[in-house]
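Field notebook, page 393. I keep forgetting to write these up properly, so this time I am using the form the group agreed on. The chain and the ligand, pyridoxal-5'-phosphate, are recorded exactly as supplied. Prediction of the bound pose follows.
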Amino acid sequence: MSKSKQEETELIRKQMERTPYREHSAPLFLTSSFVFNSAEQMEALFNGQEEGDIYSRYANPNTSELINKVCHLEEAEAGFATASGMAAVWASMAALLSSGDHILANKAVFGSTYQLLDLVLPRFGIAASFADFSTRESIVEAIRPNTKMLLVESPSNPALQMIDLAMVGKVAREHGIIFNVDNCFCTPILQKPIPLGADIVTHSATKYMDGQGRTLGGLILGSEALIEKITFFCRHTGPAMSPFNAWLLSKSLETLPLRMERHCANALAVAEFLEGHPKIHSVLYPHLPSHPEYELAKRQMRYGGGIVSFEVEGGKAAAQAMLNHTKMCSLSSNLGDSRTILTHPATTTHSKLTPDERVDVGITDGLVRISVGLEHASDIIADLRQALQALSS
Ligand SMILES: *Cc1c(COP(=O)(O)O)cnc(C)c1O
């Protein structure tokens, strides 16, 4: 992968080849299939002697452009684009694991990923279990003879626990296990798991990559060898991303570095405001010195990310009242949007967990997750300040 230009430049200039129409901005190819110049070319494309698009379930110029950009960012050899983040997570497991295998995940994973591990994979004879990935010992202890994949998200959602990716990568290599990282929260602008030892990286492009809450999308990145297996699986099971979504996402990537910088600067300002507030019990933000894994977060993430979690004094009632008192911020379960979003994880995204499971992954009843948007930081803070003031003390 040539690294001749800076990321900002590559994301803007790494476009598909211009068509005879001399368009400046990459065009959208809304076509299900492609035609061939001859029967011989058709044969060559089908047997792989010639490269080119055949059918949009396999590949399309728009999805290929998007994959090329994200491969560049993640320092990956190859990738595949899917219709959603969950399609990417599922394909990364279904393509690489078989009946009799075991997958070991950190105990704090995205809600649907948890359901997949807990209820879907066992139906196909793939066992899944959860461990605390904060130390090497606790991972090694949970590895079984048939463990084929380790799965983590760092920082975790919504408790923002940091996992040392280089440490897990080393354990995976020593045991010959595939290391799969969901890098959705950070995007490759903040954190690149592959150079740290990950074999597979997945993304929900729905979040920061789109960045404006318009579309769903997913990506799977990795080595040529692993992506070949994933591509085979996806081509024949059909979770491909639509060309329209790929076109939209590829344009969004042009501003990703700029947006991530601002998301993170705003999030740090929000975290610092909340940390000093008398109605806030605690604040979690990876780049706040009070974060329990601050040193690791500083080493592993370029900026602290766009998500801040905090505990309001007064439990569930106070947390829900604070959400109700906001005037500008949105109440939604999504994240990574230009609009600031507040969520109460215990009653929404993580309501399927038992109370004990929630406590185990750091989700208390007073916990609020804020996905800090791109509005001016002073306006976001003003809305939070008045919402906290409105709480009866
Ligand atoms: C949202 C999300 C997903 C799922 O992505 P969709 O695009 O909604 O399918 C997976 N992992 C993480 C960490 C997410 O935040």
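OBSERVATIONS:
- Residues 84-86, 89, 110, 112, 153, 157, 182, 184-185, 204, 206-207, 216, 218 surround pyridoxal-5'-phosphate (CB under 6 Å).
- The two ends are 57 Å apart (CA to CA).
FOLLOW-UP: compare against the apo run.
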